[in-house]
């Protein structure tokens, strides 16, 4: 499994973690992931993930007028989003612990 | 142990029935042919290696197919094979409709006449008008599903106008004008069925179509918006999605296709994630699935068009409507998990 595939599988958790730091627009989320050392994520993957998270109530979006250009849609984490992020991180840690244990046993 | 060739893989003869059920269950589940072939090769390989039957190894074929379809189905395949995904699905729809109408017309002719029939001019005009209306409906739906709303409206209005003109012409001609007399019924039945069957054969033999890859951004955005509206995303929400993508494209300087892929694939994914669109889509499809056979049942009863079998035919349509209602209720979006 490639790193890109791992990223796709864990995209909701990554997006929520980026937004837990500060509200961002879609392209800003993508840039934040790249800055953290991850591979660039195409809009084709990121955008549906954002719509799903918004539909689930984990994030909310609002249009903000930027100083230099057109209005931008900015996403922000909700209380539900914080809870979901914690759940996902917990599951991720449990998975990593188990995977490392399997690795050590080999 | 004997083996039977299945595509690129080899299945033991004893598993033939299991494989057939697996394949039937996988049909129309939006799994790409290559992925399905690879999965079958994997399953057949395991069967040969373990020297056990497929049923013993994998359990129920339908259950495994459901699990595999959930994993292997892609939105790209869904778009490619759905009405609006290109010429092939549209031809299949047209062929199916022509066969359906041909069968109905043949049965009515068989029930109402003997071995030969006089073909009334007005009846031909009415039949042709109805055919144009049905074809227009399919073409308009295909265009609407592909995100071309204006073309869909034009096709619908055009077909409607031709159909109305045809019926008006039939009314003017009136009954009693025979276009052809003593036409042998078998010949008529063949004439009614051949166009639909030929269309289905042509569609089946067409090479697998690929989704378009060359888009300029304005075309892409128009089709994306049209695709969202076709999946019943509210207009305001659709405009918001388009504006956000425009904003992303302006910020990143990339092309819409390179960043977001095919507009209809993204539109389907976004619509699937939208609660309002999901509910609207469910309501519309359930109303259509229940309403169509109900309307047909009422028409059959009102016209007594099936002679002695009018009541059984109407009951069959009522049962179809009831079945569609139960299926729709079972899939209601407020209780179904995405």
Written overview of the protein:
The complex is a heterodimer of chains A (106) and B (338). Chain A has 106 residues and is of the alpha+beta class. Helices cover 64% and strands 13% of the residues of chain A. In chain A, strands 1-3-2 form a three-stranded antiparallel beta sheet. In chain A, helix 2 (11-21) packs across helix 5. Helices cover 73% and strands 6% of the residues of chain B. Chain B has helices spanning 16-26, 33-50, 54-58, 61-72, 75-81, 87-112, 121-145, 149-173, 185-205, 217-230, 235-252, 256-260, 263-273, 275-303, 310-330; strands at residues 3-6, 9-12, 116-120, 178-184. In chain B, helix 6 (87-112) packs antiparallel against helix 7, helix 6 (87-112) runs antiparallel to helix 9 (185-205) and helix 14 packs antiparallel against helix 15 (310-330). The two termini of chain B are 43 Å apart. Residues 1-6 of chain B have low confidence and may be disordered. Chain A binds chain B through residues 25-27, 42-44, 47-48, 51-52, 54-55, 69-73, and chain B through 240-241, 243-248, 250-252, 259-261, 265-266, 269-270, 273-275.
Given helix and strand content, the structural type of chain A is alpha+beta
Please state how the strands of the largest beta sheet of chain A are arranged side by side: 1-3-2
Q: Name the pair of protein chains with the most residues at their interface, and give those residue counts.
A: A-B, 17 and 21 residues
Which percent range describes the beta-strand content of chain B? 5-15%
Biggest β-sheet strands, sense, barrel of chain A: 3 strands, antiparallel
Estimate the mean pLDDT confidence of chain A: 90
Percent of residues in β-strands of chain A: 5-15%
Q: Percent range for helical residues of chain B? A: over 70%
Give the N-to-C terminal Cα separation of chain B.
43 Å
Computed CA radius of gyration of chain A, to the nearest angstrom: 15 Å
Low-confidence stretches of chain B: 1-6
Quaternary state of this entry equals: heterodimer
- Helix-strand pattern of chain A, N to C? HHEHHEEH
As a percent range, the share of helical residues of chain A equals: 55-70%
What's the total count of β strands of chain B?
4
- From the spread of the alpha carbons, the general shape of chain B counts as globular
Number of helices of chain A: 5
Strand order of the largest sheet of chain B: 1-2
Catalogue the unreliable spans of chain A. none
Order of helices and strands of chain B: EEHHHHHHEHHEHHHHHHH
Specify the structural class of chain B. Answer: mainly alpha
């Amino acid at each position: 499994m490639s790193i890109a595939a791992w990223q796709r599988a864990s995209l909701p958790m990554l997006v929520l973690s980026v937004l837990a730091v500060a509200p961002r627009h879609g392209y800003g989320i993508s840039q934040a992931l790249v800055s953290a050392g991850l591979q660039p994520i195409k809009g084709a993957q990121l955008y549906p993930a954002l719509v799903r998270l918004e539909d689930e109530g984990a994030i909310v979006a609002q249009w903000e007028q930027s100083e230099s250009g057109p209005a931008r849609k900015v996403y922000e984490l909700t209380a539900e989003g914080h809870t979901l992020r914690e759940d996902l991180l917990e599951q991720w840690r449990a998975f990593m612990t188990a995977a490392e244990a399997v690795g050590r046993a080999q | 142990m004997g083996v039977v060739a299945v595509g690129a893989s080899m299945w033991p003869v004893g598993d033939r029935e299991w494989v057939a059920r697996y394949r039937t269950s996988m049909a129309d589940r939006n799994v790409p042919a290559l992925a399905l072939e690879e999965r079958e090769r994997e399953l057949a390989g395991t069967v040969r290696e373990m020297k056990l039957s497929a049923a013993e190894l994998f359990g129920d074929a339908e259950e495994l197919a459901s699990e595999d379809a959930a994993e292997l189905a892609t939105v790209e395949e869904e778009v490619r094979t759905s009405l609006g995904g290109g010429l092939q699905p549209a031809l299949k729809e047209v062929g199916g409709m022509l066969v359906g109408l041909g069968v109905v017309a043949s049965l009515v002719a068989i029930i109402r006449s003997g071995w030969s029939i006089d073909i009334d001019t007005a009846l031909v005009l009415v039949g042709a008008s109805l055919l144009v209306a049905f074809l227009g409906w399919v073409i308009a739906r295909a265009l609407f599903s592909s995100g071309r709303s204006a073309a869909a409206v034009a096709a619908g209005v055009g077909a409607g106008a031709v159909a109305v003109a045809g019926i008006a012409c039939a009314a003017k001609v009136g009954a009693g004008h025979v276009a052809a007399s003593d036409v042998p019924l078998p010949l008529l039945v063949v004439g009614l069925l051949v166009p639909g069957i030929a269309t289905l054969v042509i569609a089946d033999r067409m090479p697998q179509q690929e989704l378009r890859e060359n888009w300029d951004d304005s075309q892409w955005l128009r089709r994306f918006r049209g695709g969202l509206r076709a999946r019943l995303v509210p207009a305001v929400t659709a405009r918001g999605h388009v504006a956000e993508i425009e904003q992303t494209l302006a910020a990143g300087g990339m092309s819409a296709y390179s960043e977001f892929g095919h507009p209809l694939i993204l539109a389907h994914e976004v619509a699937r994630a939208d609660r309002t669109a999901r509910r609207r889509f469910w309501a519309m499809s359930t109303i259509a699935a229940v309403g169509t056979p109900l309307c047909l049942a009422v028409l059959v009863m009102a016209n007594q068009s099936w002679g002695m079998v009018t009541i059984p035919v109407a009951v069959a349509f009522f049962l179809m409507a009831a079945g569609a209602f139960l299926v729709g209720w079972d899939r209601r979006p407020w209780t179904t998990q995405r």
